Amino acid sequence: MPYDAILLDMDGLMIDTEQLCAQAWRDAASELGTRIGEDTLHQLVGLSHQHCLRYLQQHPELSAHMPTLALLNRQYYHQQLQHGDIPLKPGITALLDWLRQQAIPCAVGTATEGPLAQLKLQRSQLAPYFRHVVSANDVANSKPAPDIYLAAAARLQVAPARCIVLEDSVHGASAALAANMRVIIVPDIVQPPASMAKQALAVCKDLFAARALLQQLRDA
């Protein structure tokens, strides 16, 4: 089935910030004399900050340190975003250039808060590619609910079934599927479970492979 628009996640898909976020949680926990296990950090991938806090609150060894843990995390993370490098994921510039050349509408759908999303897009120099950015602040429910991607499709005036979403996380892919959209998963930190991979249009090793698939679908 043809597609009319591409919706893209941001963190872990276009920019390599999931590792930065995980390290900010590690540093915050260390300052408080505790730690966050890697399995727990993996569960945070693709979630909004508020969803992360709710998830961490369920862990007794961490709940006693909230909200100080959350405050320190944001301090470490924002310092890196404002003054450190924000590396691009390999292939994203080539993909966005191709979408522009093909005149294929695209938008960002991110669980990140709006001002922080704009900061990341500006500092990574990806902002000029997008007229529409839907963030966690723009909807009632963030990922894995479908609201963000439904809002992005509405801004592009494209039916959900005619959109393809590019995602790196399980939570984000779940949001796309719940929105009745096809999803291409490009894993970052966490590989999708087999049940999720079966529901995806494809699981691609990188954005170069994702672009090749989109071109094949376009030419078919």
From TrEMBL:
NCBIfam families from the UniProt entry: HAD-SF-IA-v1, HAD-SF-IA-v3
Gene Ontology molecular functions: hydrolase activity
Keyword Hydrolase attached: yes
Cited InterPro entries: HAD-like_sf, HAD-SF_hydro_IA, HAD_2, HAD_sf, PGP-like_dom2
Keywords: Hydrolase
UniProt keyword Hydrolase, yes or no: yes
SUPFAM superfamilies: HAD-like
Highest taxon above the source species: Bacteria
Designated name of the protein: Hydrolase
